[in-house]
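Example record

One chain of 255 residues, shown exactly as stored in the release files.
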Amino acid sequence: MQRPKITFFASKSIEAQRALHALEKSYISVPLEEADMIIALGGDGYLLRVLHQVYSLKKPVFGMNCGSVGFLMNPYDPHHLLERLEKATAVTLPTLVMEATDLHDKVHTLHAINEVSLFRKSALAGHLKVSVDGHCHLEELVCDGILLSTPAGSTAYNLSIHGPILPLESRALALTPISAFRPRRWKGAILSDQSVVTIDILSPQERPLSAVADYQELPLITHVKIYKDPHHSLTLLFDPDRALEKRIMKEQFLV
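Predicted structure tokens for this chain:
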């Protein structure tokens, strides 16, 4: 069996650069366009950036933790890497498309792997109109913002604002408010991943908000349309005993 051709990506942290140096001594790294798989060295945030960087290439990514949390990463171990890759379990991650309209009516299109978020950019709370599949469900949500998360992103920022954790196989999205003032009892919604969410910013000049697709921010937006990318998904590789589904399930029972 032919061994996979690999290429390395590493964050600028001292730990990741040391890991890169050690691995390049033991394994042949090929140019990105020739690689079958990508090895990402860093933390979850860096892995997210790598996935965006290689978004159109559709090459599987195997992350090794040289950061802090490492929820989406495998343990760093310089030994038997090729054997680990051959035994790795593949997880398919859906992605989101965000179409955001700014104050000049220009539409910006960005992709998100974890979530699309809206945040207030002034001392005043945002006023939002929230619709799903063309039907308005909230005429006015007064809040600091709102977030639409994929299952993979549901354990990230979504979890910190008390949004639901979604199993990877759920084919669902989590719509979660950020510091909702009115209606106070609205805690969010779980939607089908086929849903199209549109959010209108009411009084966008007096109460400005920005839209963020993962870490890519667009200021002063008036309207956002978010939906699952029907043509694209990403593949992460995990050691068999580090399957992402197991970790997401475990996360739901942490106290």
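Notes: Helices lie at 14-26, 44-53, 81-87, 157-160, 244-251.
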